Every structure is written in C-alpha cells, then in structure tokens.
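Quick one:
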Amino acid sequence: MKKSKFVSVLMVMMMIGMCFSGGCRKPYNKEIFQEIESYETAFVIPLEGDVSDQVVLGSVDELRAMQVEIKRIPIPQRFHQTGRRGWQGEWIPTVRVITVDRRPITREWTADANSGTNQRNEAIWIESADSIEFSVGFTCTAYIDKPGTADFLYQYSSQSLAETMDSEIRAQIQSRAAEVASQYNLSELRARKQEIIDAVRVTIIPFFAERGITITTVGMFGGLNYKNQEIQDAIDAVFRAQTDEETALAELAAQRNRNQTIELAAEAAANAVRIKAQGEADAINSVTEAIDTSGDIYLAYLGKMNRRAEISQWDGAYPRQLWNMTSGGGGGGVGVLVSTPALGDD
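Output:
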C-alpha cells in the first residue's frame, strides 16, 4: 500500500514537472514569412475553410485573382490539436504560397553527351521519306512573362519551365520536324533545314504563347547524324571527294591567276623599257634639231656677250693714245702713237 501511494505521488510530481517545463502549454505560434524574388510571381492559395468560401481553381481568371505583388508574404496559421489535452497539437498554415520562376531557360538537345544541356542523348530523331533515320540538334530559349504566369501555372502546376521544355516543348519540336522530313528523301533533306526550322517555329511559338511561355529562339544546329553508320561513312566519302575536286579546281584557278599576273607584270616592264628608250631618242633628236636650226641665233648671241664684256670694262674716258699710220718712203707706212687732248683743253 505504501509502495503504490509512493508511485502515485511520484507520477503526480512528474506531471507537475512536465507542466512547469512547458510540456503542458500550447506551442508558441511563431510567425512565418515567405520571401519572393524579383524574378518570381507568387500566388496565395487557400488550403481550408468552409465549402462556400473555398476557391475552386476552375479557370485561369480565378487563379489570376490569387496573384500577389508583395515581396514578403505572411503565412497565416491555426492550431491543430493532436491529443486529448488542449495543449497537445501543432500550428499548421492555412494557405499555400506557389511561386513561378520567370527567368529564361535555354535547352540544347543533341546526340553528343558533351555538347547538350544534359549528359545523355537528347537529339531530335526523325525519318526521311525513304525510311532513313537520323537525328538533328535543336536549341530553344524560353521564359514566362509576367502576364502569363497564371496561364502557365494553370497548365503546368506541377512542373517548372525547364521540365516543360524537356517534355512537351521538345516533343512538339520533334513532331513538327518529323512531319516535314517525311515529305522528302534523304538526298533532298540536306537542303531543307530552313524549311524544317520555319515549320517548327510557326507551330510551337503561338501554341506555347497561349500557355504563358514566350519562346524567343528555336533553331537547328549541327549536321544530320545518321543512325546507320554505313550511310554516314558513304556521305563522308562523297563529301571528301567533292572537297578534293573543289580544292583542285580552286588551285588551278589560282595558278591561272598567278600566271596572268606574271605575264601582265612582264608586259608592263617591257612597255616601260620601250617608253624610256623612246623618250631618250626623242630628247636627242630635239637637241639636234635645235642646234641645226638655231646656229645663226647662237652666233649672234655670242657676239652680244663679247660686246657686253667690252662695255663693262670701259671707264667712260676717251682713248688717251691713238695708233696713227703715216706714209713712209718706199711706199711703206710707219705706225705712231699719238696722244689725244684731255677733255676741257682748248
């Protein structure tokens, strides 16, 4: 009896200790906030309430009405009792905040694990009209514009943009490219790349715009990769032969141009020599003719130059002596110097 009473007292004391330690008190309702980034759009979805108050997401307009523009959203909570005691339970949110990431995403779907977005074969496989299977690489860039976030969330509530691109957008590209490729034989398809790209763009850009996804670029890159390696080897051999032929023709044309350049240079040099020789001959003839036709003028010129020299040496005085020739006996003559009178003498 004493032992059971002791146990009862001990249990009461333990319960009191637990109450004092916080075990018998309702948990504290700690506020919860969710931050919204600048590239995100948020929607606040009610999780509970009366049937008349709950919003059924039956349309895009109803979802758009739940879009919020604030950057910090408080999350309301209520206490959910989980035991007999009033303090046994937890606080649970009454709304759910869903965010849509609007940032651009680029995907590259290739057969090469080293060049695509993911390290696996994601090339677009299609087939020609003559049943030749091959793959092509495609790249696509898309984003969700702000007005289209409700449309995207309504259509793809459980997917991100990257997941949507790897699934539905990639499938749409493959389907449209296959439709165009099936109209042509393999020999024609190598010249039909632009037609395939145009057909893909015309189809997928407006289709996904209605679903809130803006596709900015979509294009094909790389060559055609054939599933049968023998076809690829044959095409490579033909390409090498064509390349060798084009190289030989280009080299022949280049050699012709070089030969023509050499001939033109030699002809120009010969013309220059002839022109120089003719110029020298013409110059010699001109000098000779000038000497032959202008001899008298040249002599007259020399006489004038001598006369000028005499005049330049005259001091302005009359000669002081004259040489006078007198007659002598025997018919001879005798020269005598005779002084002339000075100026001013009577």
